Structure formats: C-alpha cells, structure tokens
C-alpha cells in the first residue's frame, strides 16, 4: 500500500449528494442516507481498517452534531473518502 493511495470516488460523490440533500431532509431521512454511505464503506475493499474506523467516526459525529457543524466534519470526511 502506497502513501498516495487513491480510492474510488463514487462513495465520496454519494456522500456529497447526501450532504446536499440533507439540507432539506428531516433528521431521520438524513441519518438513513448516512447509513447507506456506511454500508457502502463496509462493503468496499478500497479502504484499510484504520481508514474505515476514521470514516465511521466522522459519520457518527455528522449524524449527531448540529446542522451548522456538519460542514466542518463533512470536509474532513471527504478527504478521507478520496
């Protein structure tokens, strides 16, 4: 595994769509959408165990924080997903 390992961008793009739609969704719909991202990451072989743990941590924070704080954590998550 190299230091400049690249991942499939499809999950990152799907997460960006979830964040965009999340602005108009209810909290339950938003969390359900985040669960779909969690499942995609779990099935993917592109991420190491440490990367998956970091992704799960950030997804949990995003699901539990206020709507105005989500953007900060979303930027961090997108960096890990790519």
Can you walk through the features of this model?
With 82 residues, the protein is an all-alpha fold. 71% of the residues lie in helices and 0% in strands. It has 4 helices and no strands. The chain has helices spanning 9-21, 27-43, 49-64, 70-81. The two termini are 15 Å apart. The mean pLDDT is 91.
User: What structural class do helix, strand and pairing data support?
Assistant: mainly alpha
Which band does the percent of strand residues land in?
Answer: under 5%
Run of helices and strands: HHHH
What is the general shape? globular
Q: How many DSSP E strands?
A: 0
Gyration radius from CA atoms, angstroms: 12 Å
What is the number of helical segments per DSSP (H or I, 4+ residues)?
4
How would you sum up this structure in a few lines?
With 82 residues, the protein is mainly alpha-helical.
How does the SSE layout of this entry go?
Elements: H1 9-21, H2 27-43, H3 49-64, H4 70-81
Helix pairs in contact: 1-2, 1-4, 2-3, 3-4
Task: State the main characteristics.
single chain, 82 residues, mainly alpha, 4 helices, globular
């Amino acid at each position: 595994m190299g230091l400049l390992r690249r991942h499939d961008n499809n999950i990152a793009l799907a997460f960006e769509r979830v964040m965009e739609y999340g602005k108009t969704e209810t909290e339950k719909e938003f969390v359900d959408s985040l669960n779909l991202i969690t499942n995609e990451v779990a099935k993917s072989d592109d991420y190491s165990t440490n990367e998956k743990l970091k992704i799960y941590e950030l997804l949990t924070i995003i699901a539990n924080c206020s709507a105005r704080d989500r953007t900060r954590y979303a930027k961090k998550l997108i960096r890990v997903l790519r």
